[in-house]
Amino acid sequence: MGIITDMETFMITKHQLFCMMMLFEIGSTTLFALGIKSKQDAWILILLATFFGFLLLLIYLFLQKRHPGKGIGEIILEICGPIVGFPIIILYAGYFTYSASINLRDFCELVSITQLEYTPVPAIMILIIVPVFYLLYCGVSVLAKLSELLFVFFIISISLILTLVIMSGIFHPQFLLPVLPNGFSSLWNTDLIKTIQFPYGELVTFLALWKLTESSSKYIWASVKTVAYTGIFLVIIVVFIICTLGADYASVSVIPLFKVIRMINIKNIITNLNSLAVVLIFIGGFFKICVFFFAAILTLESIFKMSRKILILIIGVIICANTLSIRGFIQHIWSSNFVRTPYIHGIFSFILPMVLLLASIAKPKKNRKTNPSKINNMQ
Amino acid sequence: MLDFKNILLIWKEISLFEQFLIIGGLLCIIILLVVCIYYIFKRVY
Protein backbone atom coordinates (compact mmCIF):
# COMPACT_ATOMS: atom_id res chain seq x y z
CA MET A 1 0.00 0.00 0.00
CA GLY A 2 2.94 2.30 0.83
CA ILE A 3 4.32 1.81 -2.66
CA ILE A 4 1.06 2.83 -4.28
CA THR A 5 0.85 6.00 -2.13
CA ASP A 6 4.31 6.96 -3.41
CA MET A 7 2.86 7.12 -6.94
CA GLU A 8 0.55 9.94 -5.94
CA THR A 9 3.04 12.12 -4.06
CA PHE A 10 6.24 11.71 -6.08
CA MET A 11 7.14 14.46 -8.57
CA ILE A 12 9.45 13.78 -11.52
CA THR A 13 12.52 16.05 -11.71
CA LYS A 14 13.65 17.77 -14.91
CA HIS A 15 16.55 15.36 -15.40
CA GLN A 16 14.41 12.30 -14.74
CA LEU A 17 11.84 13.50 -17.25
CA PHE A 18 14.57 14.07 -19.84
CA CYS A 19 15.97 10.55 -19.29
CA MET A 20 12.47 9.04 -19.45
CA MET A 21 11.63 10.87 -22.66
CA MET A 22 14.96 10.04 -24.28
CA LEU A 23 14.69 6.32 -23.50
CA PHE A 24 11.07 6.38 -24.67
CA GLU A 25 11.91 8.16 -27.92
CA ILE A 26 14.98 6.06 -28.72
CA GLY A 27 13.11 2.94 -27.52
CA SER A 28 12.18 0.83 -30.51
CA THR A 29 13.80 3.12 -33.11
CA THR A 30 16.95 1.02 -32.67
CA LEU A 31 15.04 -1.89 -34.23
CA PHE A 32 14.64 -0.15 -37.59
CA ALA A 33 16.70 1.99 -39.92
CA LEU A 34 14.41 5.02 -40.05
CA GLY A 35 13.89 6.68 -43.41
CA ILE A 36 15.92 4.01 -45.22
CA LYS A 37 13.64 4.24 -48.29
CA SER A 38 15.58 7.41 -49.08
CA LYS A 39 18.72 5.20 -49.20
CA GLN A 40 21.93 7.10 -48.30
CA ASP A 41 19.96 10.32 -47.72
CA ALA A 42 18.07 8.82 -44.76
CA TRP A 43 20.01 11.04 -42.35
CA ILE A 44 18.78 14.20 -44.14
CA LEU A 45 15.22 12.84 -43.97
CA ILE A 46 15.61 12.31 -40.20
CA LEU A 47 16.82 15.91 -39.79
CA LEU A 48 13.78 17.09 -41.72
CA ALA A 49 11.49 14.88 -39.63
CA THR A 50 13.06 16.28 -36.45
CA PHE A 51 12.10 19.79 -37.57
CA PHE A 52 8.47 18.69 -38.06
CA GLY A 53 8.76 16.78 -34.77
CA PHE A 54 9.38 20.12 -33.07
CA LEU A 55 6.17 21.50 -34.59
CA LEU A 56 4.25 18.44 -33.37
CA LEU A 57 5.75 18.87 -29.90
CA LEU A 58 4.61 22.51 -29.94
CA ILE A 59 0.99 21.34 -30.34
CA TYR A 60 1.30 19.01 -27.32
CA LEU A 61 3.10 21.63 -25.23
CA PHE A 62 0.58 24.31 -26.11
CA LEU A 63 -2.27 21.99 -25.13
CA GLN A 64 -0.57 21.20 -21.82
CA LYS A 65 0.23 24.88 -21.19
CA ARG A 66 -3.46 25.75 -21.54
CA HIS A 67 -4.34 23.11 -18.93
CA PRO A 68 -1.51 23.19 -16.36
CA GLY A 69 -1.22 20.35 -13.87
CA LYS A 70 -3.67 18.16 -15.78
CA GLY A 71 -3.18 14.86 -17.58
CA ILE A 72 -4.69 14.01 -20.98
CA GLY A 73 -7.83 12.57 -19.34
CA GLU A 74 -8.49 15.70 -17.28
CA ILE A 75 -7.69 17.93 -20.29
CA ILE A 76 -10.30 16.11 -22.41
CA LEU A 77 -12.86 16.31 -19.58
CA GLU A 78 -12.20 20.04 -19.20
CA ILE A 79 -12.55 20.72 -22.93
CA CYS A 80 -15.49 18.45 -23.82
CA GLY A 81 -17.24 17.72 -20.55
CA PRO A 82 -17.94 14.23 -19.14
CA ILE A 83 -20.43 12.98 -21.77
CA VAL A 84 -18.38 13.72 -24.90
CA GLY A 85 -15.08 13.28 -23.06
CA PHE A 86 -15.74 9.75 -21.78
CA PRO A 87 -15.43 7.91 -25.14
CA ILE A 88 -12.39 9.99 -26.15
CA ILE A 89 -10.62 9.09 -22.90
CA ILE A 90 -11.48 5.41 -23.38
CA LEU A 91 -10.05 5.58 -26.91
CA TYR A 92 -6.83 7.27 -25.77
CA ALA A 93 -6.39 4.66 -23.03
CA GLY A 94 -7.02 2.05 -25.75
CA TYR A 95 -4.40 3.66 -27.99
CA PHE A 96 -1.77 3.59 -25.21
CA THR A 97 -2.68 -0.01 -24.38
CA TYR A 98 -2.47 -0.96 -28.06
CA SER A 99 0.91 0.76 -28.44
CA ALA A 100 2.25 -1.07 -25.37
CA SER A 101 1.11 -4.41 -26.81
CA ILE A 102 2.69 -3.66 -30.21
CA ASN A 103 5.99 -2.79 -28.54
CA LEU A 104 5.76 -5.93 -26.45
CA ARG A 105 5.31 -7.96 -29.63
CA ASP A 106 8.25 -6.13 -31.29
CA PHE A 107 10.57 -7.12 -28.49
CA CYS A 108 9.22 -10.66 -28.21
CA GLU A 109 10.10 -11.05 -31.90
CA LEU A 110 13.53 -9.48 -31.34
CA VAL A 111 14.37 -11.96 -28.59
CA SER A 112 12.86 -14.81 -30.61
CA ILE A 113 14.88 -13.98 -33.76
CA THR A 114 18.19 -13.23 -32.09
CA GLN A 115 18.55 -15.26 -28.89
CA LEU A 116 15.77 -17.70 -28.03
CA GLU A 117 14.90 -19.23 -31.41
CA TYR A 118 13.07 -22.27 -30.06
CA THR A 119 11.21 -20.56 -27.22
CA PRO A 120 7.52 -19.82 -27.94
CA VAL A 121 6.47 -16.16 -28.05
CA PRO A 122 4.01 -16.46 -25.06
CA ALA A 123 6.86 -17.65 -22.83
CA ILE A 124 9.06 -14.69 -23.86
CA MET A 125 6.09 -12.38 -23.36
CA ILE A 126 5.62 -13.55 -19.77
CA LEU A 127 9.33 -13.01 -19.10
CA ILE A 128 8.99 -9.39 -20.26
CA ILE A 129 5.59 -8.49 -18.83
CA VAL A 130 6.21 -9.71 -15.25
CA PRO A 131 8.99 -7.13 -14.56
CA VAL A 132 6.79 -4.45 -16.22
CA PHE A 133 3.94 -5.34 -13.82
CA TYR A 134 6.29 -5.17 -10.85
CA LEU A 135 7.82 -1.86 -11.96
CA LEU A 136 4.41 -0.25 -12.37
CA TYR A 137 3.27 -1.64 -9.05
CA CYS A 138 6.34 -0.01 -7.45
CA GLY A 139 5.26 3.35 -8.85
CA VAL A 140 6.39 6.29 -10.92
CA SER A 141 9.27 7.08 -8.56
CA VAL A 142 10.94 3.76 -9.39
CA LEU A 143 10.22 4.24 -13.10
CA ALA A 144 11.80 7.72 -13.05
CA LYS A 145 14.87 6.67 -11.02
CA LEU A 146 15.36 3.58 -13.18
CA SER A 147 15.32 5.77 -16.29
CA GLU A 148 18.23 7.84 -14.90
CA LEU A 149 20.22 4.69 -14.24
CA LEU A 150 19.47 2.96 -17.55
CA PHE A 151 20.03 6.12 -19.60
CA VAL A 152 23.66 6.41 -18.42
CA PHE A 153 24.25 2.71 -19.12
CA PHE A 154 22.57 3.03 -22.53
CA ILE A 155 24.62 6.05 -23.67
CA ILE A 156 27.96 4.61 -22.46
CA SER A 157 27.26 1.23 -24.13
CA ILE A 158 26.10 2.72 -27.44
CA SER A 159 29.16 5.03 -27.54
CA LEU A 160 31.41 2.03 -26.87
CA ILE A 161 29.73 0.02 -29.62
CA LEU A 162 30.04 2.82 -32.17
CA THR A 163 33.73 3.24 -31.27
CA LEU A 164 34.23 -0.50 -31.75
CA VAL A 165 32.50 -0.32 -35.16
CA ILE A 166 35.04 2.32 -36.29
CA MET A 167 37.95 0.35 -34.79
CA SER A 168 36.82 -2.80 -36.64
CA GLY A 169 37.40 -1.08 -39.98
CA ILE A 170 33.86 -1.80 -41.22
CA PHE A 171 32.83 1.86 -41.25
CA HIS A 172 32.86 3.23 -44.83
CA PRO A 173 31.89 6.93 -45.03
CA GLN A 174 31.86 6.74 -48.85
CA PHE A 175 28.58 4.74 -48.62
CA LEU A 176 26.89 8.08 -47.86
CA LEU A 177 27.75 9.38 -51.34
CA PRO A 178 26.29 10.70 -53.57
CA VAL A 179 24.29 13.12 -51.43
CA LEU A 180 20.78 13.82 -52.78
CA PRO A 181 21.29 12.31 -56.27
CA ASN A 182 17.60 12.88 -57.12
CA GLY A 183 17.35 16.34 -55.60
CA PHE A 184 15.80 17.61 -52.38
CA SER A 185 12.26 16.91 -53.61
CA SER A 186 12.90 13.15 -53.45
CA LEU A 187 12.81 13.42 -49.65
CA TRP A 188 9.15 14.47 -49.65
CA ASN A 189 7.88 10.91 -49.65
CA THR A 190 5.71 8.77 -47.38
CA ASP A 191 8.77 7.82 -45.33
CA LEU A 192 8.98 11.41 -44.06
CA ILE A 193 5.45 11.25 -42.60
CA LYS A 194 6.24 7.86 -41.07
CA THR A 195 9.41 9.22 -39.48
CA ILE A 196 7.51 12.20 -38.03
CA GLN A 197 4.81 9.96 -36.57
CA PHE A 198 7.33 7.44 -35.29
CA PRO A 199 9.02 8.37 -32.96
CA TYR A 200 8.02 12.05 -32.58
CA GLY A 201 4.24 11.53 -32.73
CA GLU A 202 4.47 9.09 -29.84
CA LEU A 203 5.34 12.02 -27.56
CA VAL A 204 1.56 12.47 -27.20
CA THR A 205 1.92 9.83 -24.44
CA PHE A 206 3.65 12.43 -22.27
CA LEU A 207 0.46 14.50 -22.17
CA ALA A 208 -0.51 11.95 -19.53
CA LEU A 209 2.78 12.21 -17.62
CA TRP A 210 3.77 15.88 -17.73
CA LYS A 211 1.39 16.61 -14.84
CA LEU A 212 3.74 14.62 -12.59
CA THR A 213 6.70 16.99 -13.17
CA GLU A 214 7.89 19.44 -10.52
CA SER A 215 6.94 22.66 -12.31
CA SER A 216 5.44 23.73 -15.62
CA SER A 217 8.54 25.37 -17.12
CA LYS A 218 10.67 22.29 -16.51
CA TYR A 219 8.82 19.87 -18.76
CA ILE A 220 8.96 22.32 -21.68
CA TRP A 221 12.76 22.48 -21.80
CA ALA A 222 13.15 18.77 -21.09
CA SER A 223 10.82 18.00 -24.02
CA VAL A 224 12.50 20.40 -26.46
CA LYS A 225 15.92 19.00 -25.49
CA THR A 226 14.61 15.46 -25.96
CA VAL A 227 13.44 16.08 -29.54
CA ALA A 228 16.76 17.76 -30.43
CA TYR A 229 18.92 15.00 -28.92
CA THR A 230 16.70 12.25 -30.36
CA GLY A 231 17.22 13.77 -33.82
CA ILE A 232 21.01 13.80 -33.32
CA PHE A 233 20.99 10.23 -31.95
CA LEU A 234 18.89 8.89 -34.83
CA VAL A 235 21.12 10.60 -37.41
CA ILE A 236 24.24 9.05 -35.83
CA ILE A 237 22.66 5.57 -35.71
CA VAL A 238 21.40 5.67 -39.30
CA VAL A 239 24.78 6.99 -40.54
CA PHE A 240 26.52 4.08 -38.82
CA ILE A 241 24.03 1.59 -40.28
CA ILE A 242 24.42 2.95 -43.82
CA CYS A 243 28.21 3.27 -43.60
CA THR A 244 28.53 -0.30 -42.34
CA LEU A 245 25.89 -2.26 -44.26
CA GLY A 246 25.34 0.01 -47.25
CA ALA A 247 21.94 1.57 -48.00
CA ASP A 248 20.66 -1.34 -50.13
CA TYR A 249 21.41 -4.08 -47.60
CA ALA A 250 20.22 -1.91 -44.69
CA SER A 251 16.85 -1.41 -46.37
CA VAL A 252 16.14 -5.18 -46.50
CA SER A 253 17.71 -6.11 -43.18
CA VAL A 254 15.30 -7.17 -40.37
CA ILE A 255 17.17 -5.54 -37.43
CA PRO A 256 19.96 -3.47 -39.06
CA LEU A 257 21.63 -2.25 -35.85
CA PHE A 258 21.89 -5.84 -34.64
CA LYS A 259 23.59 -6.80 -37.93
CA VAL A 260 26.07 -3.91 -37.51
CA ILE A 261 26.97 -4.98 -33.97
CA ARG A 262 27.39 -8.59 -35.10
CA MET A 263 29.99 -7.44 -37.62
CA ILE A 264 32.27 -6.01 -34.91
CA ASN A 265 35.51 -7.98 -34.87
CA ILE A 266 38.74 -6.64 -33.46
CA LYS A 267 41.59 -9.11 -34.03
CA ASN A 268 39.23 -11.99 -33.19
CA ILE A 269 39.38 -10.88 -29.54
CA ILE A 270 36.43 -8.50 -29.25
CA THR A 271 33.68 -10.20 -31.20
CA ASN A 272 30.20 -11.74 -30.79
CA LEU A 273 28.66 -8.77 -29.03
CA ASN A 274 25.17 -10.04 -29.91
CA SER A 275 24.04 -10.29 -26.32
CA LEU A 276 25.07 -6.71 -25.53
CA ALA A 277 23.18 -5.57 -28.62
CA VAL A 278 20.02 -7.36 -27.51
CA VAL A 279 20.29 -5.96 -23.97
CA LEU A 280 20.75 -2.44 -25.35
CA ILE A 281 17.85 -2.66 -27.77
CA PHE A 282 15.78 -4.35 -25.10
CA ILE A 283 16.28 -1.55 -22.52
CA GLY A 284 14.57 0.97 -24.80
CA GLY A 285 11.72 -1.40 -25.59
CA PHE A 286 11.13 -2.35 -21.97
CA PHE A 287 11.00 1.28 -21.00
CA LYS A 288 8.64 2.13 -23.82
CA ILE A 289 6.21 -0.61 -22.78
CA CYS A 290 6.30 0.71 -19.19
CA VAL A 291 5.58 4.33 -20.24
CA PHE A 292 2.69 3.37 -22.56
CA PHE A 293 1.27 1.08 -19.86
CA PHE A 294 1.56 3.81 -17.21
CA ALA A 295 -0.01 6.42 -19.52
CA ALA A 296 -2.99 4.10 -20.08
CA ILE A 297 -3.42 3.74 -16.29
CA LEU A 298 -3.22 7.50 -15.67
CA THR A 299 -5.69 8.20 -18.48
CA LEU A 300 -8.25 5.70 -17.18
CA GLU A 301 -7.84 7.00 -13.63
CA SER A 302 -9.42 10.28 -14.69
CA ILE A 303 -12.76 8.55 -15.28
CA PHE A 304 -12.66 5.38 -13.17
CA LYS A 305 -12.11 5.80 -9.46
CA MET A 306 -10.70 2.38 -8.78
CA SER A 307 -7.55 0.94 -7.25
CA ARG A 308 -4.40 1.25 -9.37
CA LYS A 309 -3.59 -2.40 -8.73
CA ILE A 310 -6.85 -3.46 -10.42
CA LEU A 311 -6.20 -1.12 -13.35
CA ILE A 312 -2.67 -2.54 -13.79
CA LEU A 313 -4.14 -6.04 -13.85
CA ILE A 314 -6.95 -5.22 -16.33
CA ILE A 315 -4.71 -3.30 -18.77
CA GLY A 316 -1.99 -5.94 -18.41
CA VAL A 317 -4.39 -8.70 -19.44
CA ILE A 318 -5.56 -6.66 -22.48
CA ILE A 319 -1.93 -6.01 -23.50
CA CYS A 320 -1.06 -9.71 -23.27
CA ALA A 321 -4.20 -10.75 -25.19
CA ASN A 322 -3.56 -8.25 -27.98
CA THR A 323 0.12 -9.22 -28.20
CA LEU A 324 -0.84 -12.85 -28.70
CA SER A 325 -3.62 -12.03 -31.19
CA ILE A 326 -1.01 -11.02 -33.80
CA ARG A 327 -0.66 -14.09 -35.98
CA GLY A 328 2.99 -13.82 -36.95
CA PHE A 329 5.95 -11.60 -37.68
CA ILE A 330 4.94 -10.98 -41.31
CA GLN A 331 1.45 -9.80 -40.27
CA HIS A 332 3.05 -7.67 -37.57
CA ILE A 333 5.32 -5.87 -40.08
CA TRP A 334 2.46 -5.50 -42.60
CA SER A 335 0.20 -4.05 -39.94
CA SER A 336 2.95 -1.62 -38.91
CA ASN A 337 3.37 -0.27 -42.45
CA PHE A 338 -0.22 -0.21 -43.68
CA VAL A 339 -2.44 0.18 -40.61
CA ARG A 340 -0.65 1.43 -37.53
CA THR A 341 1.39 4.30 -38.93
CA PRO A 342 -1.03 5.83 -41.42
CA TYR A 343 -4.32 5.32 -39.61
CA ILE A 344 -3.89 4.75 -35.87
CA HIS A 345 -0.82 6.94 -35.15
CA GLY A 346 -2.13 9.51 -37.63
CA ILE A 347 -5.43 9.84 -35.78
CA PHE A 348 -4.19 9.75 -32.18
CA SER A 349 -0.86 11.54 -32.37
CA PHE A 350 -1.66 14.19 -34.95
CA ILE A 351 -5.33 14.85 -35.82
CA LEU A 352 -6.98 14.39 -32.39
CA PRO A 353 -4.45 16.59 -30.47
CA MET A 354 -4.85 19.27 -33.16
CA VAL A 355 -8.66 19.21 -32.90
CA LEU A 356 -8.45 19.13 -29.08
CA LEU A 357 -6.22 22.22 -29.17
CA LEU A 358 -8.68 23.94 -31.52
CA ALA A 359 -11.58 23.12 -29.20
CA SER A 360 -9.57 24.32 -26.19
CA ILE A 361 -8.88 27.67 -27.90
CA ALA A 362 -12.47 28.01 -29.13
CA LYS A 363 -14.05 27.20 -25.77
CA PRO A 364 -15.45 30.37 -24.16
CA LYS A 365 -13.91 31.16 -20.78
CA LYS A 366 -16.18 31.02 -17.76
CA ASN A 367 -16.76 34.39 -16.07
CA ARG A 368 -16.06 33.64 -12.45
CA LYS A 369 -16.64 37.23 -11.25
CA THR A 370 -20.24 38.37 -11.37
CA ASN A 371 -20.76 41.05 -13.99
CA PRO A 372 -21.72 44.36 -12.19
CA SER A 373 -23.95 45.48 -15.07
CA LYS A 374 -26.01 42.30 -14.71
CA ILE A 375 -26.51 43.01 -11.00
CA ASN A 376 -27.70 46.52 -11.81
CA ASN A 377 -30.16 45.18 -14.39
CA MET A 378 -31.49 42.65 -11.90
CA GLN A 379 -32.08 45.42 -9.37
CA MET B 1 0.62 5.53 -47.48
CA LEU B 2 -3.18 5.70 -47.22
CA ASP B 3 -4.14 2.85 -49.53
CA PHE B 4 -7.76 3.66 -50.42
CA LYS B 5 -7.88 1.15 -53.30
CA ASN B 6 -7.40 -1.80 -50.98
CA ILE B 7 -9.13 -0.37 -47.94
CA LEU B 8 -11.71 -3.17 -47.74
CA LEU B 9 -8.99 -5.79 -47.95
CA ILE B 10 -7.01 -4.05 -45.21
CA TRP B 11 -10.15 -3.73 -43.06
CA LYS B 12 -10.75 -7.49 -43.20
CA GLU B 13 -7.19 -8.29 -42.21
CA ILE B 14 -6.83 -6.03 -39.18
CA SER B 15 -7.72 -7.03 -35.63
CA LEU B 16 -10.88 -6.03 -33.76
CA PHE B 17 -8.85 -3.73 -31.50
CA GLU B 18 -7.44 -1.89 -34.53
CA GLN B 19 -10.93 -1.59 -36.07
CA PHE B 20 -12.22 -0.18 -32.76
CA LEU B 21 -9.41 2.40 -32.58
CA ILE B 22 -9.80 3.54 -36.21
CA ILE B 23 -13.63 3.82 -36.18
CA GLY B 24 -13.65 5.32 -32.67
CA GLY B 25 -10.90 7.77 -33.57
CA LEU B 26 -12.69 8.97 -36.69
CA LEU B 27 -15.97 9.37 -34.78
CA CYS B 28 -14.19 11.32 -32.04
CA ILE B 29 -12.66 13.67 -34.61
CA ILE B 30 -16.14 14.37 -36.01
CA ILE B 31 -17.61 14.88 -32.51
CA LEU B 32 -14.76 17.20 -31.52
CA LEU B 33 -15.19 19.22 -34.70
CA VAL B 34 -18.89 19.61 -33.87
CA VAL B 35 -17.91 20.70 -30.33
CA CYS B 36 -15.45 23.21 -31.87
CA ILE B 37 -18.16 24.67 -34.12
CA TYR B 38 -20.55 24.84 -31.14
CA TYR B 39 -17.96 26.76 -29.08
CA ILE B 40 -17.24 29.18 -31.92
CA PHE B 41 -20.99 29.69 -32.45
CA LYS B 42 -21.39 30.33 -28.70
CA ARG B 43 -18.59 32.89 -28.76
CA VAL B 44 -19.93 34.79 -31.73
CA TYR B 45 -23.57 34.91 -30.62
Which protein chains are joined by the largest interface, and how many residues does each one contribute? A-B, 37 and 27 residues
- Total number of strands of chain B: 0
Q: Using the alpha-carbon principal axes, give the shape of chain B.
A: elongated
Oligomer class: heterodimer
N-to-C series of helices and strands of chain B:
HH
Intertermini distance of chain B: 42 Å
Give the DSSP E fraction of chain B (strand runs of 2 or more residues): under 5%
SS field, number of helical segments of chain B: 2
Overview of this structure, please?
The complex is a heterodimer of chains A (379) and B (45). Chain A is mainly α. Helices cover 72% and strands 1% of the residues of chain A. Chain A has 14 helices and 2 strands. A two-stranded antiparallel ribbon of chain A has the order 1-2. Chain A is globular, with a radius of gyration of 22 Å. Chain B is mainly α and 45 residues long. Chain B has helices at residues 7-13, 16-44. Chain B is elongated. Chains A and B meet through helix 4, helix 7 and helix 13 of A and helix 2 of B.
